Amino acid sequence: MAPRSIEDKVRIDKHLRELFDIKLRRLPASLFVGGRKPTFQDVVNETEGCKFLSGIPKEYDLGWYFQSFNDLARLNFTVRKGGDAHQRNLSRAMFYLELDPKYSFNPRLDHARLNMLCMLIVYTLPKPDLVCNYGLTAPFRLRYGYAWDEGVKRSSHEQGVIARDSFILYWDSSPYGLITWTNAQKNAMKRAVEKLRDVIPPLPFAIEEFWAEADLQPDNVREKNATLWALRWLIHKDTEYQRARAEAESTIQNSEWYGQEMLDQMANMGSDNELKYLDDPYIFQNCDLLNALRVPVDEGTKPLPSQQHEPWMDPSTAISMVKGEIVDINGLIEELGSLGVSTDAMDTT
Fold it and tell me: Which superkingdom, per the lineage (predicted)?
């Protein structure tokens, strides 16, 4: 095979980087082992930084994602019920890769966190049928709870994957979906959660040690308090994640380092050093990631029309519930207190 000319190298490199930017944009940094997205050079060298966390099934690696980008785009990066085995596999992948922010098991994402919070509150209500069909939605809520728990822990063991797959399979055949809120509704939910934060009693141990400490408690203590503790942890995390998101956005907008890094990358594009990988005439046979990356993006892809799923609870009802408009908030606190934890001391941190 004849060596590539410098013009060919520049053209190929530019095209690959464009594909890299388009495809990687959809993936959250939190999926990767290093907690950051890989660089183009990471892909060229197939470094550890290209690997997903161990809790994600191995079949959905970065190469699979690059290769499947057009199929995912056809679904508009939104999970869908039904369809053939291939479509079901794509929807399963989107749950794990967090490509649909409204359907995941990651508490960093608003919809996952707020759905779980609502499920926990429902569990404490004396008359839960006031807010949802308690009996019919029970299997849906139970399976999501198990799946969410494994998602929080990023479980890589077989049982962790089974729990998440169990929910995905049940969701696919169930008439129900997760609660989804408009931006305005989501903001209303967050305001209600912030007020709830001030009246939920504190944990008996450091909130950062929640998962480890909860597992160490005697069975009878854990069974009494698990719901309350999880509520407290969720509300704390809601505030924490919102603060972290605001700080990250501020850093990106204001950091001189960030701007300089981008300028340096642009300045290096097309340099001999940056193009050296294309000296290998068999680079695409030798580098699976680059070979998957070079699959063209189909600009003519027409996404399928969106599906409408009946939520297990109406989003407006969820807001009213968290506000205490359906069940008096003092009554909710009493119910929580009856689970075994004193409500006398309030944690304001």
Answer: Eukaryota
Nearest alpha carbon to residue 114 among 49, 61, 57, 179: 179
Distance CA 188, CA 291 (A): 46
259 within a domain of the structure (yes/no): yes
Q: Which residues of 271-309 are buried (b: 16+ CB within 10 A; e: fewer)?
A: eeebbebbeeeebbeebebbebbbeeeeeeeeeeeeeeb
Give the CA distances from residue 348 to residues 222, 318, 345, in Å, rounded to whole numbers and listed in that order: 23, 24, 10
Alpha-carbon distances, residue 3 vs 8, 23, 131 (angstroms) = 10, 28, 68
d(CA 249, CA 291): 33
In whole angstroms, what is the distance from residue 324 CA to residue 327 CA?
A: 5
Strand partners for 172 = none
Spacing of C-alpha 227 from chain mean position: 22
Domain-embedded: residue 65? yes
CA atoms of 183 and 223, how far apart (whole Å) = 35
Total domains present in the chain: 1
Distance, CA of 144 to CA of 6 (rounded, Å): 54
Closest CA to 134 of 123, 150, 118: 123
| Side-chain-facing half-sphere of 11: CA atoms under 13 Å | 5
Q: What is the pLDDT of residues 236-274, one digit of tens each?
A: 776 676 666 666 555 444 444 344 344 445 444 545 567
Assess contact for 167 and 147: CB atoms under 8 A. Answer: yes
Is 124 inside any structural domain? no
Mean pLDDT of the chain: 82
Domain of residue 148, residue span: 6-103+130-337
CA dist 302 and 330 (Å) reads 51
What is this structure's pTM? 0.83
CA nearest 302: which of 11, 74, 56, 28?
74
Instruction: Please state the separation of Cα 327 from the chain's center in Å.
Output: 30
